[in-house]
Design a protein that fits this description.
Methyltransferase, Cobalt-precorrin-4 Transmethylase, Domain 2; 2 domains
């Protein structure tokens, strides 16, 4: 049996790759990635030449058993995403679950993660947090989504968790998201982290109304992490 490694890659700054991740990427027989162009660029930067295969949301169902077959025939494989830790709002869950069912050894490596990177510099409580992935697309579905969070954690007398809420959002959907948040939670304070570890890294803190006004005038760009705590 081969080993399936889960290997985090930098979320921006390429120097954030770990020594252990480099060692594993150098040693495996195959690297499974979302996009060979993105991973190929990282491998070129590291001076590593390896065979790559694509596993993404479109082909994961069909690709799983091909990867499992290679593992059962003794190949060691690294699973990476375009950036950050694989499986966190990225493909790979079905592959990992199937590998576990087949008693294939899985070794996860620690490394870059946008969630905790944003949280630790947000100024929000860090003792408990809830990661929501990406909210739904439409304004109405976003409202229902956040209303579910509110009813579960903030208006449920049996819940005393009061976590910091963290989620990802796309730049072209941010305004809709802020409008939904304001509609459900009121004019709460929000922290938005963008382009973390990159040249234009920025943390913005302000009320929902301020954020809506700001991003109406300034087009949001880059990878966004949105956080708040009530």
């Amino acid at each position: 049996m081969g080993i399936l490694y889960i290997v985090p890659t930098p979320i921006g700054n390429l120097q954030d790759i770990t020594l252990r991740a480099i060692e594993v990427l150098n040693s495996v027989d195959l690297i499974i990635c979302e996009d060979t162009r993105v991973t190929g660029g990282l491998l070129h930067h590291l001076g590593i030449k390896k065979d790559m295969a694509v596993l993404n949301d479109n082909n994961e169902e069909n690709k799983i058993y091909e990867v499992i077959d290679k593992l059962t025939n003794g190949l060691n494989i690294a699973l990476v995403s375009d950036s950050g830790t694989p499986l966190i709002s990225d493909p790979g869950f079905k592959l990992i679950r199937t590998a576990l069912q087949k008693n294939i050894q899985i070794i996860p490596l620690p490394g870059a993660n946008a969630i905790t990177t944003a949280l630790c510099a947000s100024g929000l409580p860090t003792d408990k947090f809830l990661f929501l992935g990406f909210p739904p697309d439409s304004l109405e579905r976003k409202k229902k989504f956040f209303l579910g969070v509110k009813n579960t954690f903030y208006e449920n007398p049996e819940s005393n968790l009061n976590p910091t809420i963290i989620f990802y959002e796309s730049p072209h959907k941010l305004l809709r998201c802020l409008e939904a948040l304001a509609s459900v939670f009121g004019d709460i304070e929000i922290v938005i982290a963008r382009e973390m570890t990159k040249m234009y890294e920025e943390f913005l803190t302000g009320t929902a109304s301020y954020m809506i006004q700001h991003f109406t005038k300034t087009q949001p760009k880059g990878e966004l992490v949105v956080m708040f705590h009530l």
